[in-house]
Specification:
With 240 residues, this protein is mainly beta. The protein is built from 1 helix and 16 strands. The protein starts with 11 loop residues before the first helix and ends in an 11-residue tail after the last strand. Keywords: Signal.
Length: 240
């Protein structure tokens, strides 16, 4: 299993920087503290729309030359984790150049792009740290780095969201991160407690088009399955 280096992992240094005095008073006259921990200062790049899900393992390097910062993160295209990388960097409020390069486990370049962007966020708020900035981008398969709202889901050109269907013992349900959807027609399996042979296991990543209570899943292998939203608390029972 590929060892995952989580770009957003909170370190002691990040923790100390995030807990800064914001001004004002809280209970008993104590100063209020900034608690937006986890939104590290630096650059965050989502590669969901940049790499083929069936491409295996990838290594994504994100660099900020002006800050002398660079970090490489490993991820697998077809698993349940987010396809992102990033680097902690001391940014300022000027346009900043960002370089990215994604290579396969065989050393082949799968994506390479650069951008200079003035679109900066203040993850801990201006009142917390006026010099605390981050850049959020998404990479595309045609070699672009586009600004993105870090609070919004990444979608493809057709408006679909990326999802990973659990396939350990068949294709039964999927979630969009908020609601659960059950497969129309019930569990899809090989009859022996597994997903059909042409599905990846334990996850199959693809795209979900949602219209009302209907979710249509499709992937790079040609699968197309329809799911219906189920009431909260009534998700399908785990198979197996």
């Amino acid at each position: 299993m590929l060892r995952r280096l989580l770009a957003g992992a909170t370190t002691a240094v990040t923790l100390a920087g995030a807990l800064c005095a914001c001004g004002g008073s809280g209970p008993f006259g104590l100063p209020l503290a900034c608690t937006a921990i986890g939104n590290a200062e630096g650059v965050h790049v989502d590669f969901t729309t940049a790499v083929p899900f069936e491409g295996g393992d990838y290594y994504a390097e994100v660099s900020v030359p002006s800050a002398g910062a660079s970090h490489t993160n490993g991820f697998a295209g077809n698993d349940e984790y987010s396809l992102y990388s990033g680097v902690q960097a001391d940014l300022d409020d000027e346009p900043t150049r960002v370089d990215v390069q994604v290579t396969t486990e065989r050393g082949e370049v799968a994506d390479r792009a650069s951008t200079t962007t003035p679109q900066l966020f203040q993850p801990n708020g201006a009142g917390c740290d006026g010099d605390n900035y981050s850049i959020s981008l998404r990479a595309t398969r045609d070699g672009q780095l586009l600004p993105r709202d870090p609070d919004e889901a990444v979608i493809d050109d057709l408006g679909r969201i990326s999802v990973a269907v659990s396939t350990g013992c068949g294709v039964n349900e999927v979630t969009d991160g908020y609601s659960s959807y059950a497969r129309v027609g019930g569990l899809l399996s090989d009859g022996a407690g597994h997903a059909p042979a042409d599905w990846n296991t334990p996850y199959q990543r693809g795209w979900a088009a949602i219209d009302g209570d209907t979710l249509v899943f499709s992937d790079e292998r040609g699968h197309r399955e329809t799911f219906r939203r189920v009431p909260d608390g009534q998700a399908p029972a785990p198979c197996g």
